[in-house]
Amino acid sequence: MSGTFLPVARAMKNSRPLLLSRPAVISALVIGLVLVVGTALLSAVSTRAVEIAGARVGHARTTLLQINQLLATMIDAETGQRGYILTNLEKYLEPYNSAKARITDELGALDASLADSPEQTASLAEIKSLTTQKFAEMDRTIALRHNSVGAALNVVGTGEGLVTMDALRKKVHVLEQNELAELNMRSALAARHARESQLISLGLITLAVALGLTGARLLILRVRELEDLITVCAWTNRVKYEGKWVSFEQYLHKRFNLRFTHGISEEATRKLMLEEVELHAGSRKPVNSATPFPSPEGSATRV
Fold first, then answer.
1. pTM of this structure
2. Which of 115, 174, 181, 293 has the smallest number of Cβ neighbours within 10 A?
3. pLDDT, tens digit, for every residue of 106-123?
4. Would you say 155 and 144 are in contact if contact means Cβ atoms under 8 Å apart?
5. Using CA of residue 267, residue 269, residue 274, residue 275, what is the dihedral sign?
6. In this structure, is the dihedral angle defined by the CA atoms of residues 41, 43, 44 and 50, taken in order, positive or negative?
């Protein structure tokens, strides 16, 4: 068990400088921010999709109301026709005349609502033909009733109007059932989209929070690393790290995964030039011999 744990621990220790490097910390924070923004955009798109689905559901409900209103109008017309034939009272023609006046508008509104469904449009065309036949039959019986009740009742007795009305009811019922099926399908689709969007949003938010917390933790660990005291040799300027004295470049590379290049400062350049001039002049005296060497004892420096 311990033999398996040691390589894992060593690998984690070796990857620590990379995890605590500035690119890693910034990457974690940026990814978390991108996920938060992406979640907000997804929520906006999902909300729009749910609104569209809701509008389609509302459209289907409106169409169902229009279908039921059409059938109610035809029933009102037939009721007024029958009442007038039996009583010869003009007041029974009021519902008939009202139904006849509004049937065209109702058929037009229903036609516009079903424009995106060729199958429903075809059924509506048959319904229009049946309504025309039914009103023609009712107009004929009402005209006959002005002269004789018997002639009007004979036309009613043939069953022509009953057959037409039954066919109209069946066609309206088919139209209604198709629209109900469409309504159920759109409602289920809207509910599914809402659930999927909710789950995706929750997943992205959870991932964004996890990455944000990870980035914050890495940032805190990096700050703590920089706040630690390191031991520097006052004589050689080497750093004590993991029990060994290493150069400052090696220390920064092992601990923070930093890489270096070297150059020469202006001060060192001037010093070398002065030493070169004094060397040619025959002088071996150091440029700054008054400066004593520091004590070889280690000192603690905060970085």
1. 0.52
2. 293
3. 999 988 988 888 888 888
4. yes
5. positive
6. positive
